[in-house]
Amino acid sequence: MIFRQVAAFLLASILCCWAFPAQAFDYAPPVSFSNAELTGQDFSGQTLRQAEFSNANMQLTNFANADLRGVAFSGSVLTGANLHGTDLTNALIDQANLTNADLSDAILEQAVLLRSIFNGTNITGADFSYAILDGSQIRELCQRASGVNSRTGVATRDSLSCR
């Protein structure tokens, strides 16, 4: 009896995978750009959900309006990068250098941004709702927080809990 149940389960699993390939679920396997030299590349408007960019050099790279939900930018250099209008929900952006980057109108909901550098970063209209930041980062970002995100309707100052 147990053998029949296990066999039926395995057969159903195989048929399900055959009948419903990954494309049917709008799922693409994550792409890895870890440790890559991507200076000046253009990823604007692309869907790169859960892509891995850890320890990559992405100076002056264009990600404008890209879907970057769940990406990993851990330890990466994003100086001067264009991240305007990107969706970085659930992204891992820890220990990244975002000096002079453009995060205007970006969505960073539930992103992990610990120990990242934001010197001169444009955060106008960025939504940091439920993001994880160091206290010193929040104080620094609150000094220049302004605007309202065009898609979420959340004010940058409110998303950072600025006083």
Automatic annotation (TrEMBL):
Keywords, ordered alphabetically: Signal
InterPro entries: 5peptide_repeat, At2g44920-like
Pfam families for this protein: Pentapeptide_4 (PF13599)
Keyword Transit peptide: no
Residues making up the signal peptide according to the UniProt record: 1-24
Nucleotide-binding as UniProt keyword: no
Name of the protein this chain belongs to: Pentapeptide repeat-containing protein
Organism: Aerosakkonema funiforme FACHB-1375
